[in-house]
Amino acid sequence: MNEEKKSLNFLEQIIEEDLANGLPKEKLRFRFPPEPNGYLHIGHAASICLNFGLGLRYNAPVNLRFDDTNPAKEEQEYVDSIQHDVQWLGFNWDKVLYSSDYFQQLYDWAIEFIKTGKAYVDNQTSEQMAAQKGTPTEPGTDSPNRNRTIEENMELFLKMRNGEFEEGSHVLRAKIDMKHTNMHMRDPIMYRILKRHHHRTGDKWCIYPMYDWTHGESDYIEQISHSICTLEFKSHRDLYDWYLDQVVDADKLRPKQREFARRNLSYTVMSKRKLLQLVEEKIVTGWDDPRMPTISGLRRRGYSPESIRNFSEIAGIAKRDNVTDVALLEYCIKDHLNKTAPRVMAVLNPVKLVITNYPEGKEEFLDASYNDYEDGFGSRAIPFSREIYIEQEDFKEDANKKFFRLSLGREVRLKNAYIIKGESVVKDADGNVTEIHCTYDEDSLSGSGTEASKRKVKGTLHWVSIKHAIKAEVRVYDRLFTDEAPDSYKDKDFKEFLNPDSLKIIEAFVEPSLKTAKVLDRFQFQRLGYFCVDKDSTAEKLVFNRTVPLRDSWAKMGE
């Protein structure tokens, strides 16, 4: 039992304590509350996996609630993308809800606040209010409007509601304590005027509730037992509780806010504002650009739901902010695709190789397994002919003993095929090798059962038959930034660290079995990395995205 307790994260420990102290298990209810003002990223995936994971652990419902209180930044496009991302990650919600569902109730409560002297209308400028706010070590000063009569506040608030004032001219503030040690408690704004069209309520409202006022009351309306937020909301918890104090009934469940550290990832930025900047300035092709840390970008790049869930589990839940190495995320996708992705052959940097003693015009189809190490993957027939492509990097005219690939006078095996020996080369006017001429051992066909087929050579190369190869566009993606923390510098713009080599587009050749590959199908290109079929693919033109190389190209080499 003690070992099980140790395996619980601190949020699960809180829930267990609440259950032990009498909270009925059937009262457990969680929520994932995104703002529909952008696409979700890998940091949100941590919250999704946490909240929905708690729902699965305790067999409790989880709401998907959109905190849509700012019509200036919210769009239906984001609502749709968020729902897609949550489902793609493998989770199901109990109800889809919106904070805008509660606008009338929040407004009615605000009226009660005014009537009981707990809120007032302030028509000072934002600069004046900020000056009165004080500092963390100095108390604030009261607004000259703080002691308006209830009747005056009611009249002004109704005029706000009816659209009689301009944006920014009036706000409704909670009357708490301008000398409170927590600055969030110094008469926070509850409502502001925004004459904007809302994606759900249209033009019904021209005043909108602030997030802090909406958050806890929405949790209360939905009877959320544990409102789990990221760490920046810890200082807001006093206000969360104060707002609840004013409305809760003794016979209803009172939500409890607790916080965990948001997920930060090296070599990227996690601010939706900065990600939007990359999109709007066309530094990337969109929210789902495979270099983006968005869930849609990771999906397009070839990441699987399983790999992201596993990453969230391994990275864990922390109480303090930290940065998770992107190498862990890359490890998780490699680990999953190593077990699930079929292995095929593609040549990204081709050079022509002619097997001079192979009969001209001859073709044969060789049986090749999709995975030599695991059962259940099946196999396919791959065509073999006299002329093939290999990678330029796999040949050196003169090589030292540490080079185990093809060179003149040396033998290597062609994957699933024959042993060949380098004999001569053809060069262009600049001295570049344009053709490699080899001979093959006819009895060395891999898996043929002959003694020659069992002969060991140190190198094995992937290849494609030139006559049968399919041209494909391959997008070789790398990290978008060259710095581990590109937005951590006060005196530098994060875009100064953009990686100029984050995308290279090349024309490659792939084996013909890939002609029927479908969008988001994932493969290991043998010896090269993991690749995914992009949505830009057509029947006439295959497009592959590199998900991740087999080896970390950013790791320091021990040389």
TrEMBL record:
UniProt main location, coarse: cytoplasm
InterPro entries xref list: aa-tRNA-synth_I_CS (IPR001412), Gln-tRNA-synth (IPR004514), Gln/Glu-tRNA_Ligase (IPR050132), Gln_tRNA_ligase_bac (IPR022861), Glu/Gln-tRNA-synth_Ib_cat-dom (IPR020058), Glu/Gln-tRNA-synth_Ib_codon-bd (IPR020059), Glu_tRNA_lig_a-bdl (IPR020061), Rbsml_bL25/Gln-tRNA_synth_N (IPR020056)
Domain tRNA synthetases class I (E and Q) anti-codon binding: 460-534
Organism taxonomic ancestry: Bacteria, Pseudomonadati, Bacteroidota, Flavobacteriia, Flavobacteriales
Domain Glutamyl/glutaminyl-tRNA synthetase class Ib anti-codon binding: 341-441
Family under the similarity heading: Belongs to the class-I aminoacyl-tRNA synthetase family.
Occurrences of domain Glutamyl/glutaminyl-tRNA synthetase class Ib catalytic (ranges): 27-338
Residues reported to bind L-glutamine: D67, Y211
Subcellular locations according to the entry: Cytoplasm
EC top class named in words: ligase
PANTHER family: GLUTAMATE--TRNA LIGASE, GLUTAMINE-TRNA LIGASE
Motif 'KMSKS' region boundaries: 269-273
Catalytic function, reaction form: tRNA(Gln) + L-glutamine + ATP = L-glutaminyl-tRNA(Gln) + AMP + diphosphate
Subunit annotation: Monomer.
Binding site for ATP: E35, P36, N37, T230, M270, S271, K272
Identification of the protein by name: Glutamine--tRNA ligase
Source species: Lutibacter maritimus
